[in-house]
Amino acid sequence: MVFHRRALLLGLLGIASVPLTATVLVPAEFREIVNGSEIIAFGRVVETTPQLSDDRRHVDTLVTLQVGTYLKGGPGQTLVFKVPGGQIGRYRHFMVGAPHFEAGDEAVVFLDQHTGDRPSVFGLNQGVYRVRVDQRTRQRVVVPPALLARTATPERVVRGSSARRSVPLETFGAQVQTVLDESKRGAR
Fold first, then answer.
1. Does residue 57 fall inside a structural domain?
2. DSSP E strands: which ranges in 85-157?
3. How far is CA 17 from the centre of its chain?
4. Residue 155 is part of which domain span?
5. Can you give the pTM of this predicted structure?
6. How far apart are CA 84 and CA 127, in angstroms?
7. Does the residue 146 lie in any domain?
8. Which positions ≥6 away from 140 have C-beta within 8 Å?
9. What is d(CA 49, CA 86) in angstroms, rounded to the nearest whole number?
10. DSSP-derived secondary structure letter, 177
11. Residue 17: inside a domain, yes or no?
12. What's the CATH number where 133 sits?
């Protein structure tokens, strides 16, 4: 009996000594995402390239986007940004909440330049609005991310909510432009 208690105690101490990490993601409001981004671009992913971080402790992925339209910023016809996570050989790094891209994906991306040499996605998945073709209308539509605050007060996430419906790409672009115009008027 004493042996079992000691073994249990040693096991608990071993678990307690392992450093724990977590990702906490607070939903951002749409205006915050638009105003907090230095670059907003719609395009198609043409390449993803995993790379080891400088400290060789994790893998990041460089995403190359062939830009169709810039809504804010505009460094060129292609844009390379970094997302956390990726795989090199048998080494795989995964971060909960980080977006995953594959060649051919279309999206509107909201990027900031606050860290490192490459832009990164604003608020992980919150800064990626996937674009798909509506099978009925054949129009490109924007699908909002699952976590998006609409007000400053807490709210429930409801499956199938009308607040998360797809909108035509042109309508989404107009919504972004409205927020940018409001910000310019407020800055005067």
1. yes
2. 86-88, 91-93, 106-112, 120-121, 128-133, 140-143
3. 32
4. 37-187
5. 0.78
6. 13
7. yes
8. 106, 131, 132, 133, 134, 168, 169
9. 8
10. H
11. no
12. 2.40.50
Quick check: is 106 in a domain? Answer: yes
- Amino acid code (one letter) for 152: A
- The answer to whether 104 touches 168, Cβ cutoff 8 Å, is no
* Contact (CB, 8 A) for 69 and 107: no
CA proximity to 141, closest of 165, 123, 119:
165
The per-residue pLDDT string of the chain (188 residues; one tens digit each, 9 = 90 and over) reads 555 566 555 565 555 554 555 555 567 788 898 999 999 999 999 999 999 877 888 899 999 999 999 999 877 899 999 999 998 888 888 888 889 999 999 999 999 987 667 899 998 888 999 999 999 999 999 987 765 555 555 556 566 665 667 889 999 999 999 999 998 887 65
Q: Which residues contact 150 (CB under 8 A, 6 or more apart)?
A: 29, 30, 163
Q: Which residue has the tokens 């009925």?
A: 136
Length of the chain: 188
Residue 146: CA count within 13 A, CB half-sphere = 10
By DSSP bridging, strand 120-121 and strand 91-93 are unpaired
Decide: 109 and 124 in contact? Cβ < 8 Å: no
Structural domain count of the chain: 1
Q: Are strands 167-168 and 106-112 parallel, antiparallel or unpaired?
A: unpaired
DSSP string, 16-46: HTS-------PPPBHHHHHHH-SEEEEEEEE
